[in-house]
C-alpha cells in the first residue's frame, strides 16, 4: 500500500518509489559483488602466494575488514542523518576504487590487509546506506519485503561473483583475473550513485511527522547518539537480542569465508569445486531472502530469527562432521536457509522498533555489532584452529550459534506491529 505523506507531496511505499527502489537494489548487488570477489580467492592466495601457514595470520584480512566495516556502519548512520544518504553512498564508492588494484598488485600481505580496510569502509558506507534508503522509501508496511530484496540482491551477487572468480582462478590463476570484476563493479556503482540515485532523507522526515508516539518513553524522537547506542545495544530487549544475533551470524560467516575453503582444500577438493561450495551458501541465502523478508511481514520476526540461528548451528555442525562434497553441499544449503531466515528479519526488527528520527543511527549501531562478528569470528576461529585444529574451531562456532538462537527465544519480544 502507498501511504501519502504530509503536504510535502512525498509518498511512502514500494510501488510509489519503484524506480528508485529498483535502482538501489541494483547498487546493492554491486556492493555484494565487491565482497564476492574475495570469498574464494583470498584464503587460497594467503596459502599459495604468501605462504601463510598460521590460520590466525591468514585471517587477518577478515579481521581488518570486519573491524573497519563495523566502525564505519556506526558512523554511516550518523552521517546519513546529518548530511543525507546520497553523499555517504557516493563516498563509499570513491573509497572502493583502489581496492581491486591493491588486490592485484599487492607485493606483500600487508597490502591485502590494507585493501580490506578500504573494502570495510566501502561496505560499511554503501550497504548501510542502501538499507537506510530502502527503509526510508517503503514506509512501515513492507519493511520486511524491502529488506528481503536488499539483502537478496547483495548476497546473490556475492554468490555469483564467488563462483565466477573461482572459475577464473581455476583457469587463469589467483591474480589478476578474479579482481578485474571488482574494478568494473566499483566504476559502475560510482556512476549510478552519482548520476541516478536520489536523496531519501525527506521520506524519513515525512514518516516521522506522522509517526505515532512511541509506547516506551525511552524511545521518544529526540535522542542523542549515545542514547541510541545504549538502547539498541542493551536496554531494549528486542534491539539488543537482534544485535547479538547479528554479531553471531556474521561470526559464523567469517568461519565460512576464511576457514571452510581451507578445510575443503585440505580434503583435496579442486579450486573449482571449492568455488561451487562457497557459492552455494550465499546463493541460497540470497534467493531465500526474497521469501523470508515477506514472510516476516506476515508471521512476525522473533520465531524466524530463532529458527534461523538454530538451523545455522546444525548446518555448521554438519560441516564439521562431513568429509565429502555431497555432505558439505547439503550443509551449506542448510546454512543458507538459516541465514536467509535471519538476515532481513533482523533488519526489519530494528526498523520496527526504532523511531524514524533515530532509525538510521540505530541501524548503524546494529550493524556495528553485526559486522564486528567478522573480526571476532576470524580471531576466534583462527586462534582455535591454530591450537586445536579446523574441526574444533567449527564445532565451537556451531555451539555459539545455537546459544545465540536460544537468547533470542528467551529475550526478544515480537516487534512486528500487526503480529
Task: Offer a concise description of the structure.
This protein has helices at residues 18-36, 41-48, 55-58, 60-83, 85-96, 99-105, 109-138, 143-172, 177-195, 201-209, 225-235, 237-258, 260-266, 271-299, 302-321, 325-353, 359-388, 390-411; strands at residues 3-4, 11-12. By secondary structure, the protein is mostly helical. Strand 1 and strand 2 form a beta hairpin.
Task: Describe the fold and architecture.
The protein is an all-alpha fold. The protein has one domain: Growth Hormone, Chain: A, CATH 1.20.1250. 79% of the residues lie in helices and 1% in strands. It contains 18 helices and 2 strands. The chain has a two-stranded antiparallel ribbon with strand order 1-2. A hairpin with a 6-residue loop joins β1 and β2. α1 packs antiparallel against α7, α11 packs across α12 and α12 crosses α17. The chain is globular, with a radius of gyration of 20 Å. The two termini are 18 Å apart. The N terminus is likely disordered.
Number of helices: 18
The name of the CATH topology is Growth Hormone, Chain: A
Share of β-strand residues: under 5%
Number of domains: 1
Strand order in the sheet with the most strands: 1-2
Q: What is the CATH C level class, in words?
A: Mainly Alpha
Shape: globular
Kindly state the number of beta strands.
2
The CATH architecture assignment turns out to be Up-down Bundle
Give the H and E element order: EEHHHHHHHHHHHHHHHHHH
Query: Over the alpha carbons, how many angstroms does the gyration radius reach?
Result: 20 Å
Span between N and C termini?
18 Å
The average pLDDT is 87
The low-confidence parts are 1-7
Helix content: over 70%
Structural class: mainly alpha
For the largest beta-sheet, the strand count, sense and barrel status come to:
2 strands, antiparallel
